[in-house]
Amino acid sequence: MKPAFDTLLVANRGEIAVRIIRAARELGLRTVAVFSDADAGSLPTRLADQAVPIGPAQAGKSYLNVAALLNAARSVGAGAIHPGYGFLSENAAFAEAVTAAGLVFVGPGAAAIRTMGDKAAARLAAQRAGVATVPGSAGAVDGIEEALRIAGDIGYPVLIKASAGGGGRGIHIAGDASELRQELGRAQAQAKAAFGDAAVYLERFIRQARHIEVQILGDGKRVVHCFERECSLQRRRQKIWEEAPCAAIDAATRQALCDSALALARAVDYSGAGTLEYLYDEDTRAFFFIEMNTRIQVEHPVTEMVTGVDLVKEMLRIALGEPLRLQQSDIALRGAAIEVRINAENPARNFMPCPGTLSSLQVPGGPGVRFDSMLFPGCRVPAFYDSLLAKLIVHDENRPAALARLERALDELGTEGLTTTQGLHQKLVRDPQVRAGQLHTGFLEAWLAAHPM
């Protein structure tokens, strides 16, 4: 059968653009990078077969500019667009525009993005599929009086979350009715500014929950899971450290969690890679669906390390029109993997972004070490985008061995010329509670308060 396309345009930047370009080239595809003025000469533009400028440094005029991306695709004869993560990756209108232009969107269809990418709609879909959700509003709340009534029913504190949000952004906490009155309007205004949609919904805030997510792959007919990741180490709801598998759940809980993810993915005939996120209450051993990300995740490498499944290649194969190759029985857990995010931030100055120029780079090596990065000596890190520079991933036969490997790899890493979060991870990996796996979503904020950088 003739492939659906032979040239792929990567509508993203940084390390995920590099990751996609490498996977596509290994599948024999011609690759095209796009770049803003600030990213001229970046690593993706060096690795792709062709690179096309798409506009000024501001993301709204380049990586979020649908017309510029489609024009770039047409100009190079691309047959498909991979959105990566962030930017337009969960924008249903963009997926529709790509398809209307006669191109393949590497990801789920616009209908699935609308249903599962809208967090309030996803809660309703989960409830219809019989998947437990955190107690909260049935959908977006319509004004303060409805919000107060719902919060009174489910109990304070409550989270106010943007329906169109993601990646932990746009979340506010209200501890009582007075705070809810103050925060609701702010949350709606921020949601409108960040996502173009002011709709928000409410969830009960579960203290000291673990954040666990299940990776799935589907082709619109069949769905398989690739087990779970734990992402409980977060600062301001932004993940900085991820693991697979979760050390806190037993085999029966793991099976129930993965089964619920499959049920929800099947309910929307899911195609491509996706992640279903849950909160896990360790005291009651109950888990609650919170949202789905209809794209590849930053933390996908830990799943690849413990399953041997190349998730980006599988996404591309599905987009090329191939049926899902994997049966559930093909996918097994092997050992433990940990990923830490190396960001251009200064932990000692409240994680202030630190753009600049990398003067030298020493990449950790040895068995079970992977470094997904946008870095090379002399590269410039612009101030216009997310501060993620690289992901250091390690794998070994179990969690204690993986922690020892991570400690060694962090000590080998060298990034002269840039201030990064490497030192934070070097302290975390040696912390007794982290080594014991005593984690929850509020752990890091309290740890930082007790351990000034």
Supply the key terms.
Biotin_COase_C; PreATP-grasp_dom_sf; 22 strands; 453 residues; D-amino Acid Aminotransferase, Chain A, domain 1; ATP binding; 8-stranded antiparallel sheet; 5-stranded parallel sheet; alpha+beta; Dna Ligase, domain 1; single chain; nucleotide-binding; Rossmann fold; BC-like_N
The CATH superfamily label of the largest domain reads ATP-grasp fold, B domain
For the termini, the CA-CA separation is 57 Å
Classification by helices and strands: alpha+beta
Q: How many whole angstroms does the radius of gyration measure? A: 21 Å
GO molecular function, one term: metal ion binding
Pfam family, one: CPSase_L_D2
Protein name: Carbamoyl-phosphate synthase L chain, ATP-binding
InterPro entries: ATP-grasp, BC-like_N, Biotin_carboxylase_complex, Biotin_carboxylation_dom, Biotin_COase_C, CPAse_ATP-bd, PreATP-grasp_dom_sf, Rudment_hybrid_motif
Structural commentary:
Pfam families: Biotin_carb_C, Biotin_carb_N, CPSase_L_D2. Keywords: ATP-binding, Biotin, Ligase, Nucleotide-binding. This is Carbamoyl-phosphate synthase L chain, ATP-binding. InterPro entries: ATP-grasp, BC-like_N, Biotin_carboxylase_complex, Biotin_carboxylation_dom, Biotin_COase_C, CPAse_ATP-bd, PreATP-grasp_dom_sf, Rudment_hybrid_motif. One of its GO terms (molecular function) is ATP binding. The structure is a single chain. The chain has about 450 residues and is an alpha+beta fold. It folds into 3 domains: about 5-105, Rossmann fold, CATH 3.40.50.20; about 145-205, Dna Ligase, domain 1; about 210-450, ATP-grasp fold, B domain (D-amino Acid Aminotransferase, Chain A, domain 1), CATH 3.30.470. The chain has 15 helices and 22 strands. It has helices spanning about 15-25, 45, 65-75, 90-100, 110-115, 120-130, 145-155, 175-195, 250-265, 300-305, 310-320, 400-410, 420-430, 430-435, 445-450; strands at about 5-10, 30-35, 50-55, 80, 105, 160, 170-175, 200-205, 210-220, 225-235, 240-245, 270-280, 285-295, 335-345, 345, 350-355, 355, 360, 370-375, 380, 390-395, 415. The strands form 6 sheets. It has an 8-stranded antiparallel sheet with strand order 13-12-9-10-11-14-21-19, sandwiched between helices. Strands 3-2-1-4-5 form a 5-stranded parallel sheet. Strands 7-6-8 form a 3-stranded antiparallel sheet, with helices on one face. A hairpin with a 4-residue loop joins strand 12 and strand 13 (about 285-295). Helix 7 packs across helix 8 (about 175-195) and helix 12 (about 400-410) packs antiparallel against helix 13. It is globular.
